[in-house]
């Protein structure tokens, strides 16, 4: 009986050692960084109703085969006249010199809840101009 108690006390430590001995936590050399993706079109309702949820569709360019969509960054920028939402599609680009250029147009969407009765101004990031300044596709939506 005494040996059984000792064995049961040591069992969690044994399981912990076996669990971590089987894991390989070494760096496999994969390097990536996050990049903004150019939005080419947005499917936004003509109007919103207060406290209702809406799906907003976005078409974006995937620049190469090593970039995958990660999500949207929606940034609030309120003003006196509008509720402004700046929307940027975010991708993770793996650093691989052999990545083929694709310029695929792909679609994703996100859920949006109308919380204010003021008009909304969506500013979808479309890329930078020659001077490096960000450019936007602007869509105004009235809320009731």
Provide structural commentary:
This protein is mainly β and 144 residues long. The chain has a single domain, classed as Immunoglobulin-like (Sandwich). It has 1 helix and 9 strands, in the order αβββββββββ. The chain has one helix at residues 2-21; strands at 32-37, 39-43, 47-48, 53-64, 67-78, 83-94, 101-113, 120-128, 134-143. The strands form 2 sheets. Strands 1, 3, 5, 6, 8 and 9 form a 6-stranded mixed sheet that branches. The protein has a 3-stranded antiparallel sheet with strand order 2-4-7, with no helix packed on it. The chain starts with a helix and ends with a strand. Mean pLDDT is 85; it is low at 2-26.
Mean pLDDT rating: 85
> What string gives the helices and strands in order?
HEEEEEEEEE
**How far do the termini sit from each other?**
74 Å
Instruction: Write down the CATH class.
Output: Mainly Beta
Beta-strand percentage range: over 45%
Q: What is the CATH architecture descriptor?
A: Sandwich
Low-confidence stretches are: 2-26
CATH topology: Immunoglobulin-like
Largest sheet: 6 strands, mixed
Number of strands: 9
Query: Into how many domains do the coordinates divide?
Result: 1
State the shape: elongated
Query: Structural class, judged by helices and strands?
Result: mainly beta
Radius of gyration, in Å, reads 24 Å
How many helices?
Answer: 1
Q: Which range best describes the helical content: under 10%, 10-25%, 25-40%, 40-55%, 55-70% or over 70%?
A: 10-25%
